[in-house]
Structures are given as C-alpha cells and as structure tokens.
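ligand=coenzyme A
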Amino acid sequence: MTIELKPIPDEDLEAFHRMMADPSLSINTGSVPTGVDMEWSRVRLETRRLEERAGKRVDRGIYEGDTLVGTAGWFYNEDDNMEIGYAIHKDHRGKGFATGAAGLVLELLRADGFKDPVYAQYFKDNEASGRVLEKLGFERVGSVESISAARGGSSPAWVMRIDQL
Ligand SMILES: CC(C)(COP(=O)(O)OP(=O)(O)OC[C@H]1O[C@@H](n2cnc3c(N)ncnc32)[C@H](O)[C@@H]1OP(=O)(O)O)[C@@H](O)C(=O)NCCC(=O)NCCS
C-alpha cells in the first residue's frame, strides 16, 4: 500500500501521542523530550497548526490507509533556511516510509514553486536517517552541535542539503 501526507485530525491524537512518547523516536529529534504526556502531544499538534497558519511550517501525518505511521514536513530553521523533518512509528520502520514521505514533502515544496536549497539535519549516530537523505539525493555540507531535548543537551549532527528540487 502507498502512503500519503494528510493533516492529523483530533481523532488521531492518541495515535500521534503513542509515536511522540516512544523514546526511540524522541532520542533522534531536536524538540521532543523523553516520555511526553498526552497534554504535551495535544499542545504540539495545536502549535503546529498555528505555525502552519503563520506560514512557518507544514507538518503532516504520514498515512498508510487509515493508519498514522509517522509525521513529515518542512519548516524555516533558525538560519531562515528551508529544512525538512520526518519520523516513523517504531512498528512501521524499514519499509521505505521515511524516504517516501520526505520525497512527498519535497514534491509539496516543488509544487509550491520553491526553488532554493533544502536542508536537513541528523544526529551522527542516527545512520538510518542519513541513509534516507542520501537516497533522496541530499549531500553532506557541514557538521554542527544540535540541541536534543531527549538527550538533555547538544549532540553532533550532520547538516545535509539538496540544491535541485
Ligand atoms: C530514521 C527513520 C525516520 C527511518 O525511517 P524508515 O521508514 O525506517 O526509513 P526507510 O525505510 O525509508 O529507509 C531507511 C534506510 O536506512 C537503512 N538503515 C536502517 N537502519 C540503519 C542503520 N542502523 N544503519 C545504517 N542504515 C540503516 C535501511 O536499510 C534503509 O536503507 P535502504 O533502503 O538502502 O536499505 C526512523 O528510524 C525514525 O523515525 N527514527 C526516529 C526519529 C528520527 O530519527 N527522525 C529523523 C530525525 S533526523
């Protein structure tokens, strides 16, 4: 079955929360602390909707049929560069969903007429994410110390970029 990107409705808050509360997900993100509660997930969904209305980001659920298998989207980072992000629920990894969903995010940007470079970052010990980006044509352009709420500080990360959408 193929995947599609859709806004996450309130009915899927519990499924969204199960993803966010999983330590194997939060450890590789910048902004998700370990062991978040349902209220944190509710606020997160709501905040992301408000940021989308303000033109700062688009965040989508990744759906396989009716099943929420992950999230993916774009945002303007602290340098005002376009950056993408994605995460897959642990039960649905290894099936190409992150690569497919990140590719769909690039397609969304392309369809909007976006032509500038697109960035992504991943912690150096998160090789699966590096592989996703390589498969999409991103190239390594730098190295930074990036904050991770779940790691409780900063951790070395690769900066990746794709120039031709
Ligand atoms: C990283 C993550 C998004 C990958 O999702 P996924 O749906 O399993 O990714 P895909 O199936 O599209 O591709 C994964 C690739 O990494 C490879 N891979 C998996 N584990 C790996 C590892 N430990 N080392 C190297 N490569 C690995 C897979 O073999 C696959 O490559 P291939 O197609 O060449 O075989 C998922 O593990 C995840 O959500 N992790 C937690 C959150 C996260 O890391 N988000 C990204 C933040 S930068």
